[in-house]
Amino acid sequence: xxxxxxxxxxxxxxxxxxxxxxxxxxxxxxxxxxxxxxxxxxxxxxxxxxxxxxxxxxxxxxxxxxxxxxxxxxxxxxxxxxxxxxxxxxxxxxxxxxxxxxxxxxxxxxxxxxxxxxxxxxxxxxxxxxxxxxxxxxxxxxxxxxxxxxxxxxxxxxxxxxxxxxxxxxxxxxxxxxxxxxxxxxxxxxxxxxxxxxxxxxxxxxxxxxxxxxxxxxxxxxxxxxxxxxxxxxxxxxxxxxxxxxxxx
Length: 249
Ligand code: NAD
Description:
By secondary structure, the protein is of the alpha/beta class. It contains 8 helices and 7 strands.
């Protein structure tokens, strides 16, 4: 029970890695608030966790809305009494080279992937201060570390998350609030199906990974769990790369 007594808020918790993190956190003793724009899927995850005997509540959360974030944090406080952990996981993929990138899509990607992390962090700080400290885990990507031949706004947004993480870490370390970023390589979720719709491009990407396989959601969830837990109490402002060795080459 590595999160016994902790309360966690996870954005984008209705499916993919966010749902895997919600299930793992609950199995490790956390009470979980999961927020997403996908209501039916979110309520399904909430029900699964409740069936396992743990506590979870779904809230409708559009990460681009400050008022949605404030009510998500309020739900954690009302239902579970405090907030210890925030996982800024919600994100969208976008594929376009610079000349093909529309301003509209640039803004949409930056809003969800970048501003969403800022708003979630801003909304959670005072509750974490009240709790005597906390842990924020921001899901960036290997796309936040290296450039891409195919995507523009996505990499820029994930790079922004990487440095927002470090400013958060520096600004709130004295209050016991840690903040770290996680950088997954290709992980088998719905997003990956959108990125690599055909088998040959997926195979090419897999062949470029030293460990020889695509990542599973649980590969990332276990890293997020570690950073969220007190086992990582001396770790802040750091980057955890979970990519099978892809960016080591
Ligand atoms: P996914 O598409 O399965 O899940 C993303 C979740 O975010 C969905 O539930 C979606 O509804 C939610 N979401 C999207 N816009 C939202 C909004 N405005 N407000 C609230 N929720 C919103 O994808 P995933 O692979 O599980 O991605 C999770 C995170 O991991 C994302 O930030 C993604 O960029 C990042 N990531 C994914 C991969 C990968 O290969 N799958 C690699 C690196 C990083």
